[in-house]
Write a structure and sequence with these properties.
- By secondary structure, the chain is an all-beta fold.
- Helices cover 0% and strands 53% of the residues.
- The strands form 4 sheets. A 4-stranded antiparallel sheet has the order 4-5-6-7, with no helix packed on it. Strands 8-9-10-11 form a 4-stranded antiparallel sheet, with no helix packed on it. A 4-stranded antiparallel sheet has the order 12-13-14-15, with no helix packed on it.
- The radius of gyration is 18 Å and the shape is globular.
Length: 193
């Protein structure tokens, strides 16, 4: 069982927030901290859990304003291995359904910047650098089709409501809707396979 705990600490300038992720082993009746230990670290965003539950990918940063990196945490013993180092401007990472980190999204100055890599590539390349004053709508989430450059995006840029659409990461084209509603916004997609 994975448990996330948020932390708030009062400091002279206001509040400092952090988070931690724990694993609870039902058979052994014990808790284990996952990720690194740091005073104000943010470390509870799970990107991927291996199908055999042997490891997970976790974003980790040292405080609210720091760029996150991605680490691999072995669930059996809590050991940590860096997967993706922090990259300037990237605030959120996305992994595909095989556990490969493929996309980093964030703001660089007044631009929305996306860094992407195809399956098996080592380096990320900038695929989008859109000025905020030219951005139509918001991009709220991304997902991948395993081993491909296609996936989905959750955006409100086409109708004003958040919906899920097919998305081509190489061309950045928004395709046909996967799910949309005229009454409610979509928050996320969950897949069982």
């Amino acid at each position: 069982v994975l448990l996330s705990m948020g932390l708030v600490k009062r400091v002279p300038s206001g509040e400092s927030r952090g988070s931690r992720l724990f694993a609870y082993d039902l058979a052994k009746d014990e808790f284990r901290l996952l990720g690194t230990v740091g005073g104000r670290s943010i470390g509870d965003e799970v990107l991927y859990v291996a199908p055999d539950a042997s490891y997970l990918l976790l974003t980790q940063s040292w405080h609210q304003l720091a760029r996150p990196g991605v680490i691999r945490v072995t669930l059996e013993d809590g050991s940590i291995e860096p997967v993706v180092k922090p990259i300037s401007g990237v605030r959120k990472w996305f992994a595909d359904r095989s556990g490969e980190v493929r996309l980093g999204v964030g703001y660089d100055g007044l631009n929305l910047r996306m860094r992407y890599r195809d399956p098996g590539e080592e380096k990320f390349r900038v695929i989008s650098n859109i000025s905020l004053d030219k951005l139509q709508g918001d991009f709220d989430g991304f997902g991948f089709t395993e081993g491909d450059h296609r996936g989905y995006v959750i955006t409100n840029s086409l109708t004003g409501r958040y919906a899920a659409y097919h998305y081509d990461f190489r061309t950045q084209e928004i395709g046909e809707p996967i799910f949309e509603s005229t009454a409610v916004d979509l928050e996320r997609l969950l897949f069982d396979e």
